[in-house]
Amino acid sequence: MCNYSNDNSACIDISGQLFFLTDSRYSIEATEQAVADKIVISKNIPKTINNILKKSKITRIKFDPYELSLGVYETIVKNSNTQFVSKPYMFKLRRAIKQPHEIDLLKTAINIGRKRFIDIKKLLSHSNMTEQKFNYKTIEILTGKGEQQLSFSPITAFDKNSAKPHAIPSLDKLRTDSLVLVDGGVKYRHYCSDRTETYIDHKKPLQQKIYDIVQKAQHTAIKSAKVGMKAKELDTIAREVIDTAGYGKYFSHSLGHGIGLDIHEYPIISSKSPDMLKEGMVFTIEPGIYLPDKFGVRIEDCVVMKNGKAEVL
Amino acid sequence: MCNYSNDNSACIDISGQLFFLTDSRYSIEATEQAVADKIVISKNIPKTINNILKKSKITRIKFDPYELSLGVYETIVKNSNTQFVSKPYMFKLRRAIKQPHEIDLLKTAINIGRKRFIDIKKLLSHSNMTEQKFNYKTIEILTGKGEQQLSFSPITAFDKNSAKPHAIPSLDKLRTDSLVLVDGGVKYRHYCSDRTETYIDHKKPLQQKIYDIVQKAQHTAIKSAKVGMKAKELDTIAREVIDTAGYGKYFSHSLGHGIGLDIHEYPIISSKSPDMLKEGMVFTIEPGIYLPDKFGVRIEDCVVMKNGKAEVL
């Protein structure tokens, strides 16, 4: 709402007047960057919100119960005459559909990310490199040695560690025939990219087989996505490809997630998602198969819903 | 409580039986690393907790209202016969006092961090380096090119940007006479270090004057800290040094914070802190003076309360 954030801030909209609240450490930055009618510096943000609401005398205010801790909520509502109307995920729902200029920024971020993977792949020639070192090198490449920020701490896993969808880098070493999974992204003007590539040994039949199934699941999902379809239907379409091949129980996470200023936004592309696919949504499609103690394969791209269907960004 | 965490997890203790809940992405890792009697994999953790509590038939459970969103809380308590007893900050309070083995781990982290600052200081000879590049190089040095994890994204600010206590790296360039503020830390076996050094031009009288005041405030606080003293008294002692010198209004943040597995733990060393200094607490002492549009100086060390007084780690 205010085009700026930090680790201790809040935003409230009172009859169209936008308040951005933060503490004194961020006063200069907030004044320069936050788009708001009033910047409020506070040592106790919940209490200050309580005061602002009391002074404003407004009768109703909407809020997202998942964005406030119970303790903060209790401070804000204390002795208040304002009615608090719970609107689960109101901000996330609003942000699920991207404006054209946001799609352009996401496209730029995603293109930078994709190009950086070309250099990451070259790390495969460094056998004996540890997962931790590989991870560090991946960060170096993704950020362009500091030009870009990361959109999240990248996942880099070799062989059996890749069977953990969110593996932590270990001291295991890269072998010349290692399978390597890399999941990483960068930010461009605060917008995130997200991409996963898995590098397999094409001479190993099981790896090739699993890779082909995951790729087919991803392609099928991309081709099938339509505006007006339920997100959970799309998850089912990809899952059926993997089920049919006999690996259903090894696709242990959801198909994808919205992406934008945050790495995880709406819509949720899962078997339990209540979301509908709409024009302008941007999300990942990332099926995977994880064989415990053997290896995992995940392939991930970002798509935008455009002219009724999914276009790979 | 479970010696392990990730971005979607919960821990509950039912009559001494420890449950660790997470989603399927983390099942292998949680099984390997979490110290718990039962690992529960769930697609909807709050709902699963609600079910576990119903089945357990326990009558009362304590929780921290600042660690649960209102929405999650409402799901957990729905149709429950269990009484939920709000204990604000119960986990943070428990973790404020460190065990001897934790102090050893913190000491190691802090020593690694301190040594890395020797190399960071050498970057000062690279005039024309941008703040962003300096930040990247700082990360490279702090992490030992990936050997250590960062305890937070380091702050590196030149000249007028250093007047923002939490500045974001810009494209401004380092000059041979720049003032440079660096605030950074590393993790050692999950324990965090935190350190700030400010490099001034000793030929500039105002910089030298401000530096001397901040250093005096820090030394006075370190010498004055006693077990049994209120944390807010310690904040006052440092603040008075700066006040007396006429710069009180430019010391815009609190004096320090506890440090451990998280970069910000209890106690809080601020003018409003309810905390008392106790044996075994580890916290930062980091006074600063920030002159808008000119420069800022902050000096930070970590101390442990030992034998009744503060010892610099």
Concise summary:
The structure is a homodimer of 313-residue chains. By secondary structure, chain A is an alpha+beta fold.
Structural write-up:
Two copies of one chain form a homodimer. The first copy, chain A, is of the alpha+beta class. The first copy, chain A, folds into two domains: 9-93, 3-Layer(aba) Sandwich (Creatine Amidinohydrolase, Chain A, domain 1); 100-312, Creatine Amidinohydrolase (Alpha-Beta Complex), CATH 3.90.230. Helix content of chain A is 33%, strand content 24%. In chain A, the strands form seven sheets. Chain A has a three-stranded mixed sheet, sandwiched between helices. In chain A, strands 6-9-10 form a three-stranded antiparallel sheet. A three-stranded antiparallel sheet of chain A has the order 7-8-11, covered by helices on one side. In chain A, β1 (9-14) and β2 (17-22) form a beta hairpin. The two termini of chain A are 25 Å apart.
Order of helices and strands of chain A: EEHEHEHEHHHEEEEEEHHEEEEEEE
CATH second-level architecture of the largest domain in chain A: Alpha-Beta Complex
Largest sheet of chain A: 3 strands, mixed
CATH-defined superfamily of the largest domain in chain A: Creatinase/methionine aminopeptidase superfamily
Oligomer description: homodimer
Low-confidence segments of chain A: none
Instruction: Estimate what percentage of residues of chain A fall within beta strands.
Output: 15-25%
Overall form of chain A? globular
The spatial strand order of the largest sheet of chain A comes to: 1-2-3
Helicity range of the residues of chain A? Answer: 25-40%
CATH class of the largest domain in chain A: Alpha Beta
- Evaluate the radius of gyration of chain A: 22 Å
> What's the number of domains of chain A?
2
The most extensive contact between chains is:
A-B, 45 and 45 residues
Q: What's the total count of β strands of chain A?
A: 18
| CATH fold-type name of the largest domain in chain A | Creatine Amidinohydrolase
